[in-house]
């Protein structure tokens, strides 16, 4: 397997003093951290769409990438791209990949042709997985690119469109099961609205809930045991998304009796577009026991759209890894690099540079976060800060044994509370010094 990246050999760990741009400086897959190897803990995945289907275009410019796998008929391109994907992942040393159905197989002129195309490519992908040992982290369906989905998919006002959505998702779930996918993601790229003048929001949300219940029923019917995930996204392209952030998705799942069947796939760039930090949306999901998987990327704070850049901010990633470690890891999920090269990075070697940087950043974040946990000062400070809720009337209130009147009596008895510093700067210094 040496057709599309002949100049690149297997990427190896060489340590932080290495100057080799095609080597890991921090990601040593066999190193044990927090009771697991880095490979087991981080569970890196390569995303099919940005890595192999992106052509370097942006909203203001034409494509700039020239890739050997993009030559031929649609099915020839699909087969070449599949070969390039597994060659790349094998040389990179990532254990997983992710795809949308229309990434790996082209849409046909009819629904039957689309289904046949997907079945053909899935069969070939299964062979590559067996040959290489690379596994499928998750699959999903592209329910946003085709013009039929211009007003949404499961939330579309036309039941005919929703039927098309259901057909496509059924096939994608079945394909994910055939390939041994450990999760299935629902990404509502256009599940939202532009104006209430033409939208019945209550009806559309109910439609989505009914659709998700059908998906749960289908998974049980075919014996799919993978984890269902919903990926929050606040905007772009739709102005008002129903899956805005972790909190809104959890609220939706609870409202429609779906909470037992789904976890969340958190994307860093989506969290920041929602006005949160990456760590915040992770923590919201983790505290609900619903942190499932991660799309690892970052946005540009000077740009107002989903730029999907590779993560290189060790401060941000360390804060995220603190949440992930304390949540016990990602279970069946992983760290999928939903990120793409910049428009001017046109060499295929740049694909390796980008992934190496992202993998090293998360490996370093894992090491730093674990060192902070073992150091203990941050957790000790937080424990002391909330110690009043572990005993006395604080604990009594949480146990449901106090009233407004009894708490008022305590306030009158104790007088004005002593102000206590939050020590934010000191704690930030501890984090930065660990880095």
Q: Compute the average pLDDT.
A: 96
Q: Mind telling me the CATH superfamily name of the largest domain? A: Divalent-metal-dependent TIM barrel enzymes
What is the CATH top level name of the largest domain? Alpha Beta
Unreliable spans are: none
How much helix, percentage-wise, in residues? 40-55%
Active site: 100, 103
Subcellular location: Cytoplasm
Catalytic activity: alpha-D-xylose = alpha-D-xylulofuranose
Keywords: Carbohydrate metabolism, Cytoplasm, Isomerase, Magnesium, Metal-binding, Xylose metabolism
Protein model, in words:
The chain has an eight-stranded parallel barrel with strand order 5-6-7-8-10-12-13-14, surrounded by four helices. A two-stranded parallel ribbon has the order 1-2. A two-stranded antiparallel sheet has the order 3-4. It folds into two domains: 12-375, TIM Barrel (Alpha-Beta Barrel), CATH 3.20.20; 388-434, no CATH class. The protein has helices spanning 38-42, 48-53, 74-92, 101-104, 111-132, 159-178, 201-222, 246-255, 268-273, 278-287, 314-326, 348-375, 377-385, 392-398, 404-414, 424-434; strands at 12-13, 23-24, 32-33, 36-37, 44-47, 96-100, 135-140, 183-186, 192-193, 227-230, 240-241, 262-267, 291-295, 335-337. It contains 16 helices and 14 strands.
Could you give a short description of this structure?
The chain has about 425 residues and is α/β, with parallel strands linked by helices. It is about 45% helix and about 10% strand.
Q: Which short descriptors sum up this protein?
A:
single chain, 435 residues, alpha/beta, TIM Barrel, eight-stranded parallel β-barrel, two-stranded parallel sheet
């Amino acid at each position: 397997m040496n057709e599309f990246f002949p100049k690149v050999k297997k990427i190896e760990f060489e340590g932080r003093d290495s100057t080799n741009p095609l080597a890991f400086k921090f990601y040593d897959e066999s190193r044990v951290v927090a009771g697991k190897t880095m490979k087991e803990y981080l569970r890196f995945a390569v995303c099919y769409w940005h890595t192999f289907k992106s052509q370097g275009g942006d909203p203001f410019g034409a494509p700039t990438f020239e890739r050997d796998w993009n030559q031929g008929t649609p099915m020839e391109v699909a087969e070449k791209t599949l070969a390039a994907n597994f060659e790349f992942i094998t040389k990179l040393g990532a254990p997983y990949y992710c795809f949308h159905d229309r990434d790996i197989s082209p849409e046909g002129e009819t629904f039957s042709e689309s289904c046949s195309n997907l079945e053909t490519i899935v069969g070939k992908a299964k062979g590559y997985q067996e040959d290489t040992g690379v596994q499928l982290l998750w699959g999903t369906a592209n329910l946003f690119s085709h013009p039929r989905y211009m007003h949404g998919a499961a939330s579309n006002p036309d039941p005919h469109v929703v039927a098309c959505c259901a057909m496509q998702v059924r096939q994608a779930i079945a394909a994910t099961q055939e390939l041994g996918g450990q999760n299935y993601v629902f990404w509502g790229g256009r599940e939202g609205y532009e104006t209430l003048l033409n939208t019945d929001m209550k009806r559309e949300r109910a439609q989505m809930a009914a659709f998700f219940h059908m998906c749960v029923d289908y998974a049980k019917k075919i014996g799919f045991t993978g984890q269902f995930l919903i990926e929050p996204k606040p905007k772009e392209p739709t102005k008002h998304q129903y899956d805005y952030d972790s909190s809104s998705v959890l609220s939706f799942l609870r409202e429609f009796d779906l909470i037992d069947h789904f976890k969340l796939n958190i994307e860093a760039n989506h969290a920041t577009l929602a006005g949160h930090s990456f760590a915040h949306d992770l923590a919201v999901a983790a505290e609900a026991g619903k942190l499932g998987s991660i799309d690892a990327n970052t946005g540009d704070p000077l740009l107002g759209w989903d730029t999907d850049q590779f993560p290189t901010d060790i401060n941000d990633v360390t804060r995220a890894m603190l949440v992930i470690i304390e949540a016990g890891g990602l279970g069946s999920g992983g760290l999928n690099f939903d990120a793409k090269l910049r428009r001017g990075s046109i060499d295929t070697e740049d694909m390796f540079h980008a992934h190496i940087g992202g993998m090293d950043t998360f490996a370093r974040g894992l090491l730093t976060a674990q060192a902070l946990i073992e150091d203990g000062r941050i957790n000790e400070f937080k424990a002391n800060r909330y110690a009043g809720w572990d005993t006395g009337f604080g604990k009594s209130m949480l146990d449901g044994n106090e009233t407004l009147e009894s708490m008022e009596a305590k306030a009158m008895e104790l007088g004005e509370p002593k102000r206590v510093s939050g020590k934010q700067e000191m704690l930030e210094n501890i984090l930065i010094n660990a880095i």
